[in-house]
Amino acid sequence: MKWPDDPNGPIRSHPEPSGGAVVTEPAAVDLLDIDPDFGSDPYRAYAVLRARGPVHEIRAGEKDRFWLVVGHDACREALTDPRLSRDWPRNGHLATGLEAPPATDGPGNAHMLLSDPPDHTRLRRLAARAFTPRRVAALAPRIQDVTEALVTAMLAAEDRRADLVDALAYPLRMTVICELLGIPDLDRDAFRGWSDEITAPTGAEAARAAQAEAVPYLGGLIAAKRAAPADDLLSDLIHTVDEGGDRMSEDELLSMALLLLLAGHESTVNFLCKGVRALFAHPDQFALLRGDLDGLVEGAVEEMLRYDAPVETAPPRVAVEPVEIGGRSVPAGAVVLIALGDAGRDPARFTAPDRFDIRRTGTGDRGHLAFGHGVHYCLGAPLARLEGRIVFRTLLSRCPTLGPDGRPGGRFSGLFAQGERKVPVRW
Length: 427
Known about the structure:
The protein has helices spanning 31-34, 43-52, 72-79, 88-91, 119-130, 133-138, 140-155, 164-181, 188-199, 204-227, 233-239, 250-281, 283-291, 293-307, 340-343, 381-398, and strands at residues 11-15, 22-26, 55-60, 64-69, 84-85, 161-163, 317-319, 323-325, 328-330, 335-338, 403-404, 409-413, 418-422, 424-426. By secondary structure, the chain is α+β, with helices and mostly antiparallel strands. It comes from Streptomyces arboris.
């Protein structure tokens, strides 16, 4: 399909219900028609859509339709609109346009990412009592130790080559999240299979099967922590009670553990790998960072998050009533995706947004949406930032000659994230 010169793309016409004037609106578009390489680089297609407007109906395959929000301000607006519901267990039946809507029945789906206020407010309040800034800050020495050990093992390779995912990003994040939750001796192969299928499923049945395997494991772990509490996040979540005596139910505990263990793990690994790729692609910025790690690493981490967001689109929402975003009407029942990645590339918000610049200092160049915005702002953002600062400072100080060793591989493309499962490096 070729786009006409009209910046609004093809249009479809229909009469108003009253039989009056004809109303025209853009037809649903296929992202691959805009750019066949969308799966490997979505930003060109997003820029084309953003130039036409902030909201677009997208067709995916023969049957699926959803609505995509692009641009910083429109994304920020959509992230806080209460009419766009994340409560799929309650409102999923309203969704139209999807051949197979997300399955949210059964255990493991009673977490705050699948809820709206006031249920979300309650769950987040209880989670925040256990997942405190103090607990995150206390992890710094352990993250440093694990990073040092993994880098040492990586540098021992005689051929001076490694896959950064297997050597560093994956085992670091898994070690940190398992120690945070208090999970002993987790089967790493099983864990990786669950995580891959749930966050970037190869099919609906495969995703359900992965969750069905993870749920009983976590249920047994919660029972063990209830019987013998320890100094870890999961034990605190089990025993946390607010001022009114409220606490999480068994399914809410299990769901929270699943959310932290799987979704948080995958996004952080993706963040670390995309950050390394951005440095490799911009040798001038790489040289700047190596020359002043202590002074520039914090800004570099924020620029990595802005430039190539680890979660490309926020988890899908369903419109419980008609919603107008940026002058475009989104119908009730529409499934809405909010392009967090494109929000970071919007020239209306960021100076030269396609330029990777670790020294961005202007106030207008801050405020990316990589961790979302509003009530669903990522609870794990402080931990991800801490890990990023430690990993890049340690890796680049220990391995100043680090470089790419061929193209990344194992490309995955899920509903809300894209990336590589292999990042080969040499030194």
